[in-house]
């Protein structure tokens, strides 16, 4: 996939960090950016235990039903979110997909407050994701990074504490490197 100029620096910096994240966790790690109201996978890295998914570089996905997308949406103005949802809708892909606008806004408020998005089988049954935004010095969201894996391995402390802390640490490194590169 051709990397647009806006995202080339982010890709160049985040690629290595996301790859290391996959190696350290043993899971699937991704970098997602928003383009034209959809999420676009910019980098995917597979750890030794990573499950196979339908995700691939260049794939476009809805933002409302992924942890990565929620991490991005939570840092966009309400008007922009409404514009995206008016254009692309909020289709359900599993029974856990949020399809109600006010429920989504409530969910995004929690994501913004906690600094982490949890996808609990919202896009793919049996798959969970933990994601955090990448926010620049101007408080503009540039993208999101996340780790995905089967519900059997993404439970309790690992899902709610260990992975979020790791992702926040990696995002901090990416944000600093994009600011000072």
How would you sum up this structure, described in words?
- Helix content is 43%, strand content 23%.
- The protein is of the alpha+beta class.
- It has a single domain (5-179), classed as GAF domain (Beta-Lactamase, 2-Layer Sandwich), CATH 3.30.450.
- It has a six-stranded antiparallel β-sheet with strand order 3-2-1-6-5-4, sandwiched between helices.
- A hairpin with a 6-residue loop joins strand 4 and strand 5 (127-135).
- Helix 1 runs antiparallel to helix 5 (156-179).
- The longest helix has 24 residues, at 156-179.
- 39% of the residues are buried.
- The model has no long low-confidence stretch (mean pLDDT 94).
From the structure above, extract its key features.
5 helices, Beta-Lactamase, DNA-binding transcription factor activity, alpha+beta
Going across the biggest sheet, name each strand in turn. Answer: 3-2-1-6-5-4
The largest β sheet comes out as: 6 strands, antiparallel
CATH architecture: 2-Layer Sandwich
| Helical stretch tally | 5
| Rounded radius of gyration (Å) | 15 Å
Mean pLDDT figure: 94
User: What is the strand tally?
Assistant: 6
CATH class: Alpha Beta
Secondary-structure element pattern, one letter each: HEEEHHHEEEH
**Fold-level CATH name:** Beta-Lactamase
End-to-end separation in angstroms reads: 23 Å
Question: β content, as a range?
Answer: 15-25%
Coarse structural class? alpha+beta
Question: Considering the protein shown, what is the CATH homologous superfamily?
Answer: GAF domain
């Amino acid at each position: 996939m051709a990397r647009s100029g806006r995202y080339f620096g982010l890709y160049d910096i985040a690629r290595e960090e996301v790859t290391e994240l996959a190696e350290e966790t043993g899971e699937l790690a991704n970098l997602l950016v928003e383009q034209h109201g959809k999420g676009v996978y910019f980098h995917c890295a597979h750890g030794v235990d990573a499950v196979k998914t339908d995700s691939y570089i260049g794939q476009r996905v809805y933002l409302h039903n992924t942890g990565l997308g929620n991490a991005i949406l939570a840092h966009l103005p309400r008007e922009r979110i409404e514009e995206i949802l008016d254009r692309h809708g909020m289709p359900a892909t599993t029974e856990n997909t949020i399809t109600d606008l006010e429920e989504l806004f409530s969910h995004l408020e929690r994501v913004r407050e906690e600094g982490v998005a949890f996808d609990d089988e919202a896009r793919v049954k049996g798959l969970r994701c933990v994601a955090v935004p990448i926010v620049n010095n101007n408080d503009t969201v540039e993208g999101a990074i996340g780790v995905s894996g089967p519900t059997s391995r993404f439970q309790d402390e690992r899902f709610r504490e260990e992975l979020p802390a790791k992702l926040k640490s990696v995002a901090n490194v990416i944000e600093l490197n994009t600011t000072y590169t």
